[in-house]
Amino acid sequence: MRISKGGLLVIMAFLTPLIVELRTVLSWFGIRLSVVETGALGLALIVAVLIWAMWPSNGDTEAKLA
Amino acid sequence: MAMRNAYIDQFPEEARVIRAALWSSFLALMIGGTLGLIQGLHRTNVLRFIPSQDYYTVLTAHGVLLVITFTIFFLVGIFTWAVTTSLDRGVKDIRFTWGWYAMMSLGTLLVGVSILGGVVDQIPMNADVLYTFYSPFQAHPAFYVGFVLFVVGTWLAGFDWFRTWWAWKKDNPDERIPLPTFMALTTMLFWYLSSIGVAISILAFLLPWSLGIIDSVNPLLTRTLFWFFGHPVVYFWLMPAYMLWYTMLPKLSGGKLFSDPLARVVFVLFLILSTPVGIHHQYLDPGIAEGFKFIAMTNTMFLLLPSLLTAFTVVASMEHGARQRGGEGYLSWLKALPWRDPAFTGMALAGLMFAAGGFSGMINAGLSINYLVHNSWWVVGHFHLTVGTAVALTFMAASYWFIPQLTGKEIWNRSLGLVQVVLWFIGMTFMSNAMHRAGLFGIPRRTAEPQYEGFSFDPAVGTVAEIDAQVALGAALLTLSVYLFITNMVLTTIGGSTSDAIPDNTYAGTLSGPEDSPAIIDNLKLWTSIAVVLVIIAYSLPLASIIDAGGLFGPGIDPWKPSVVVDPSLVLESVRGVMP
Amino acid sequence: MNIHTYEKTWLAVAMVLIVGFIATITYGAVGPGIAMIDDDGGTIDPDTINDDERFSDPGVTHVGGNEYEAAVVAQAWAYTPSEITVPANSTVTFYVTSRDVTHSYTVAGTNVNTMVVPGQVSEMTVEFDEPGEYGILCNEYCGAYHHTMEGKLNVVPEDEFDLTELSTEAPDEAQLGNQTTINTTVSNDMNYDLETTATLEIGNQTVEQDQTVEQDQTVEQDVTVPAHGSETLEFAVDTTDFGTGDHDWTVTVDGHEGSGTLTVTNATEGGDGDA
Ligand code: HEM
Ligand SMILES: [Cu+2]
Ligand SMILES: [Cu+2]
Fold first, then answer.
1. Whole-number pLDDT of residue C164
2. For residue range A22-34, what is the model confidence (pLDDT) as tens digits?
3. Which chain B residues contact residue A3 at CB under 8 A?
4. Res B571 pLDDT > 80
5. Among B174, B253, B325, C48, which is least packed by CB within 10 angstroms?
């Protein structure tokens, strides 16, 4: 784990406004994501974050952080 | 056995009053949150199980319970903690303290029962007037009396803190006011100043009018007096949250407050600038000259300053805390913060949402763009980010630290607490994003069925159905979050076992202490006088011209009791009847 | 006072931001001349609305050039008139007041939006460039059926717009052989005289016994309706020409129509003769 479970939960939570607002902003530029597309994008981001978090980190500096 | 030094060990008597205040606050949150879900589902037509006429009873209760009862009961609890802890002395007479608590509770009860009369036939009262109670709507006198009792209760609470401070000053003539006390006192000063507005509105006009002593009021005058109080009350909700961000968040992050002097400057700015801005809620009101609206707008923009300074200090203090905990790098220090602690995470998320809310608030404050968003759902989206999250989530998060202090018990389930604050953040993201967007294409606030016969809304992006679904989803997550919070608090209080591991009752130290600021910053008389002068400048002319044009008691305005529920088709008949 | 350099920088940035905001907004408000709601509308006693010059007959009137005025009375839970029609490329000043509680007058999704406070008159000037249809709604809580309070705003192409109104008054019945009149009142709310022609058409369809009269009759009259005034025309009709039965008639003025039916009866069948 690169970060604590708590940190991971918070990052996942951050994805919500990121996706919701990204969708709003994109639509101003004429790019309209459907609800399903948005959901898929969200899922992809969650998976990406999970992989990043689970990837064994090279040092042990971070492991001891809360 | 290790000596525990939690608040309950230091001030057992005060801890009982604070617990009572916090529980009053939580109860209001639970009921209010439930009503919020009913509203969210009703408006969006996802689920309608009350008649639309009763929607306004529900909305009145939601507004009053959340922005008056929930927030202010929490405030009096937390300020009592702040004053006693930072002065290291108890209140002068605990019976007096219970006295103001009882008065606030009685007031709440009266207001609550009169609102409940809107849906319960057995209660011969009605107060479907929303929390702004604009005349010529006329509520039952009990509503006004209850409101006054509640506000006077807060005045007495302030007096309680002031005299505790006076007693302390006698013993410590040369010391600077400790920061938490300084914050509580400056907040109370602008509260005294601004609640005069609503006191005059009720005592001189609305109450005698509802009792039949006078038979007309000037709607624009009572409305202006309401907003004289109505904007500062926003900062009254916010100041305890700011206090927690300044005094608790740095500590929870593992560090110290960046700057004590700057924190004082911020609170002084709020004392000076909170009141002469209320007219920014009346940009669209007739009967108020444009110049007065400009003055309010300018003052409002300067009021951004203390909030921008707060953003800086809070982030800087968090970074300091993270580095104390071994955090490094430009951004990777973020990882070192105690994200598993619901008190920390809740407050940090609340602060982040406040930044978004502040952004939409700047839009509201713009004189001309306000015409687009005024009274639309945009505004509801805005204040659910500010009072509904920056304040409410900070209070919930802080409770994870305070309830152990006040009960001597560990939180029943801290992980659940973390899930709860995160859930609030997610739910509010959905709800407020949809509300903001809905407002831009014209969906109004305070409307049971925003679906019209002669036209439909035309969203630039997406569909109304999608917006509705997003609101309903957000509302459901938020309500779930409220229940998780309440469950945790109840089980902590009644189920949890007393623990010796409760941390000591302290607040954050400072990197740069009060000695770095000139003593004049602590001169409360000076700042209060400046605040009074600014209020006189901003309000005397508008009030005079409103009274001059419409009369002190208005041009023969008949009271309107919302209880008279009529069939709208009959009303249309009567419209045709009165038209020549 | 000891202020950290970062803090000073931030303070400066914040001040620049704030002053920038104020400047932008001031420019936005003063520059392009978006009119604010202020105290220009004056005050009014709600009980005198029916006697008020402007509000006793609410609706749109022409001021001159492309300028119009619209007077609207709000009351729980309707606007009078509920529908407003104005031409494109016009400047319309709205005057809105309330008979009872506080309402709003809001054109959904636009910045045409004002509070309507009893005792006050909201004055709001709006420029309409393009034709379009808009919803009007009340966004201030005004009682149990607040959510039903709505109206409509139509901005029509200039050449489809006028402020001519027509009302007709005629007896329903007349005895065969009598004279009767169809009165037509034409009102004109433009700021100039309306010169036009009024046309009456009576078409005959009904048959009684063996007698059938197939006769269409058209009568024309030239008329000048003064600015903000009205003119009443009398069309004299001689029933001898028609015979008994139902006769539909239509009065047309400037594209507006009024119609009715005149029943001609035999003298013995009753009916109240000439009107
Ligand atoms: C469970 C969480 C909540 C939900 C689902 C919720 C939902 C809603 C909804 C849908 C409205 C819009 C009503 C309308 O415009 O017709 C509303 C209004 C409002 N909410 Fe909430 N809300 C919640 C929590 C809060 C909190 C925590 C606060 C403040 C501390 C708050 C303060 C208000 C206020 C002041 C209004 C406006 C009342 C009025 O217009 O008179 N809400 N809420
Ligand atoms: Cu405000
Ligand atoms: Cu209304």
1. 84
2. 888 888 787 888 8
3. 335
4. no
5. B174
Q: C259 phi and psi, to 5 degrees?
A: -145, 165
Encoding tokens for residue B121? 């036939």
Cβ proximity of B450 and B444 under 8 Å: yes
Residues B305-336: tens digit of each pLDDT? 888 888 888 888 888 889 888 888 888 888 88
- Active-site choice (B383, B402, B441, B553): B383
Query: Do C145 and C178 reside in the same domain of the chain?
Result: no
A: neighbours with 3+ CB pairs under 8 Å? Answer: B
C248 φ, ψ (degrees, to nearest 5): -75, 140
Q: Hey, are the CB atoms on C108 and B371 less than 8 Å from each other?
A: no
Question: Among all ligands shown, which has an atom nearest to the Cα of C139?
Answer: 3
Q: Is residue C11 part of a domain?
A: no
Q: Which of A27-31, A37-41, B560-564 has the lowest mean pLDDT?
A: B560-564
SS3 percent helix, strand, coil of chain B, rounded to 5, is: 70, 0, 25
**Rounded Cα–Cα distance for residues B345 and B363 (Å):** 28
Tell me which of B111 and C172 has the higher pLDDT: B111
The residue whose CA is least distant from atom 22 of ligand 1 is B36
* CA distance readout (Å), C89 to C58, C72, C129, C230, C250: 22, 21, 4, 26, 33
Question: Is C99 inside any structural domain?
Answer: yes
Predicted confidence at residue B563, as pLDDT, reads 62
pLDDT higher at B203 or C35: B203
Region B364-377: mean pLDDT is: 83
Choosing from B414, B446, B457, B483, which is the catalytic residue? B446
The domain total for chain C is 2
Q: Which residues pair with C106 in a beta bridge?
A: C113, C137
Distance B384 CA to ligand 1 centre (A): 7
Q: How far is CA B290 from CA B62, C26, C96, in A?
A: 33, 12, 18
Domains in chain B: boundaries: 11-575
The CATH number of the domain where C62 resides is what?
Answer: 2.60.40.420
Q: What homologous superfamily does CATH list for B11-575? A: Cytochrome c oxidase-like, subunit I domain (1.20.210.10)
What's this model's pTM, rounded to 2 decimal places? 0.90
Query: DSSP string of B555-577?
Result: SSPPPB-TT----HHHHHHHHHH
Neighbours, chain B (3 or more CB pairs < 8 A): A, C
pLDDT above 90: residue C17? no
- Residue B70 alpha carbon, nearest atom of ligand 1: 30
Based on the fold, state whether residues C153 and C188 are members of the same structural domain: no
> Contact, C152 vs C84, CB < 8 A?
yes
What average pLDDT does the segment C209-225 reach?
57
Chain B residues 342-371 with a CB less than 8 Å from chain C: 362, 366-369, 371
Decide if pLDDT at B531 tops 70: yes
Indicate if B445 belongs to the active site. yes
Q: Is residue A63 one of the residues assigned to a domain?
A: no
Same domain, C152 and C216: no
Domain boundary among C160, C194, C209: C160
- Name the domain boundary from C137, C160, C183: C160
**High-pLDDT (> 90) share of chain B, %:** 65
Structure tokens at A43: 């899922």
Q: What is the ipTM for the molecules in this complex?
A: 0.88
Q: Which domain holds residue C190?
A: 164-265
Question: Of B48, B62, B393, which is best to mutate to test ligand 1, by the most ligand atoms within 8 angstroms of its C-beta?
Answer: B62
pLDDT band at residue C35 using 50, 70 and 90 as cut-offs: low
Q: Which of A4, A28, A32 sits opposite B340 (nearest CB)?
A: A4
Residue pair B2/B402 in contact by the 8 Å Cβ criterion: no
- Residue C142: CA atoms inside 13 Å, Cβ hemisphere, count? 29
Site from A2, A9, A22, A61 to mutate, B interface, most B CB atoms within 10 angstroms: A9
Residue A21 belongs to a domain = yes
Q: When comparing pLDDT for B321 and A66, which is higher?
A: B321
How many whole angstroms from C62 Cα to the centroid of ligand 3? 27
Question: What pLDDT, on the 0 to 100 scale, is given for residue C197?
Answer: 82
